[in-house]
Amino acid sequence: MAGFIPEDKISEIKNAADIVDIVSEAVLLKKTGKNFSGLCPFHTEKTPSFTVSPDKQIFYCFGCGSGGNVFSFLMKQEGLSFPETARRLAKRYGIDLPIKRLSPDQKKKIGERESLLDINRRAMDFFYQALCRGKAGQAARSYLERRGVSQKTIDDFKLGYASDSWDRLLKYLTNQQISPAVIEKSGLILPRKNKSGYYDRFRNRIVFPIIDTNMQVIGFGGRVLDDSLPKYLNSPETPVYNKGRSLYGIQQAKDKCRSTGTVYIVEGYLDLLALYQHGIENCVATLGTALTSDHVRLLTRYAGRMVLVYDSDEAGIRSAQRCISTFWREHIDFRRQDVFSEDKADTHILVLPAGHDPDSFVFEHGPEAFMEAASNSPGIITFLMNRAVDKHGLSTEGKIHIISELQQSLAAINDRVAQALYVKQLSEKIGIAESTILERIRSISTKSSKIGYPGLPTNTLRSGLQTRDEKNTVLAADKGPAGILAGNRVERQIIAMMIQFPDILPDIRKYNVLKLFSDNTLKGIGESILDFNPTSADQVSELMSGIDDGPTHALIASLAMGNESWNRKGCLRLIGKFVESGRKLRDGGLLESQIKDAEKRNDHKLLLKLLSKKQKMAENSEKQKMALLNEV
Ligand SMILES: [Zn+2]
């Protein structure tokens, strides 16, 4: 699995990395008995079902079924590949990784990412110095001062200034022996039209570095100091920057988002900075795009309540309409257990009074007024309903318009309970029977629901009621087929036993227990356990490292997390029961049908042979049982 990273290095990393340490950076963990628990970063929840075991060095979420070791955690959380994760951990724990064994392609890829991040960081420092110290930065400094941006905010966000020159940054970077061809990939410079050299992309602009949750500078935004156009300019997409996945301010906002459970989403850099300066630090800005599902997924790691802040009705309506299916999909995906209500969806639209953007509003009315307005902001659907009623009025024609305007949004709610609740709300508001509205939107829903959501078992999505046991086997939303119904109960129990009580492994071998497994995923895990041959339950994380499959990690974590107290006697009894019933099922089933067949054909000779075989089998299974019981 490790590919080009040597095994001994992987185990060195594994020994050095502590899962509690790593998870703590993303999740607020509380000690609960032997384990730690917190709110799951992979689905939205209000009560913690995310569990980390320091002994076993694994995590498991009883809500969404994500699980694995420190590697799987980082891979899932940061979207990294295994080698990237290993490199990240190695760096963190000061372990030297040889990179000689990279294929030229891999080397190139990793090298490119790192050099782009390095260039970005140098550029950020360069712009920052230019703003804070340079003579040329004076105009930019006064501009920010006029906008009320304090020096502390400039420092916290490392704001900068790109001077009014064609090649100042280019010269600065090439003087440090960085080739223009590489700088071009960062998007900071562009080739001249006549192909003779390059020029700086950001000129005479305030520069806002875009920093991700790992403190990496992934891109930049630039704003003019006057009214010239374009007012805003952003880095192009690069190997390290994807605007549909990046949010401005997330690094500075994430802690406050987590502690308050709320995130404010604004449109502009300066809006964000204004709120930040007024103590509203749980705020991010989209970078000139509509909110994407990647954004929502990123934010749900940190906050359950999202408030989208707009400066006009029109922008609010457009964005609300666009966001509805995104939000619904993301929230439904991650909150399968919840019965929906507007409260649970918890996505709000705040439209500021006419003439105000967040920047001007908070400077004029103060942070309390902003928070107050935000706490009274309607949920996304209620917002659309109110606007439709305001716009069309309650005349007969108005009502017809209202319904046709809202039907698409209501149909996009793929949770029937939530949908019914909103329909009821609308029915009360405009005085049209619920059934009439429902009929209209369901005709649209059935058309769109056929698309479905890949990777999600609809049965678990729909049924809100699951037993704890079932819940444990339902894996994360991005699982493959392996996790959907992880084998039968006894087979799961046996694997759990093998992980938690490895003393039993010789018996598993001796009685060929795995041969009788009907579930191939579980069987495969069982075989890996036998191969790995752990001597204690603490080795589960290492066991996972030998298996190159995320969903399987989650399944193993779910089976390893239990705290059953196993003893040899109980184990053997379980094995005996399983072996007996398995054999009966497998051989008995075949034999029974052969007997029936012989009976039908009146083949007495064969019948006698089969019956004696049956007798022998029964005796054998009795012997086996006695053997097992004797050991007990
Ligand atoms: Zn979860």
What tags apply to this protein structure?
five-stranded antiparallel beta sheet, binds zinc ion, alpha+beta, DNA primase DNAg catalytic core, N-terminal domain, 632 residues, single chain
Name of the CATH superfamily of the domain at 104-241: DNA primase, catalytic core, N-terminal domain
Overall mean pLDDT stands at: 81
β-sheet strand percentage: 5-15%
Overall shape: globular
Could you walk me through the main structural features you see in this protein, from its secondary elements to its overall organization?
- With 632 residues, this protein is α+β, with helices and mostly antiparallel strands.
- Among the domains are: 7-92, Zinc finger, CHC2-typedomain (DNA Primase, Chain A, Alpha-Beta Complex), CATH 3.90.580.10; 104-241, DNA primase, catalytic core, N-terminal domain (DNA primase DNAg catalytic core, N-terminal domain), CATH 3.90.980; 380-449; 570-631.
- 55% of the residues lie in helices and 10% in strands.
- The chain has a five-stranded antiparallel beta sheet with strand order 1-2-3-4-5. A four-stranded antiparallel beta sheet has the order 6-9-10-11, with helices on one face.
- Helix 22 packs antiparallel against helix 27 (568-600).
- The radius of gyration is 30 Å and the shape is globular.
- It starts with 6 loop residues before the first helix and ends with a helix.
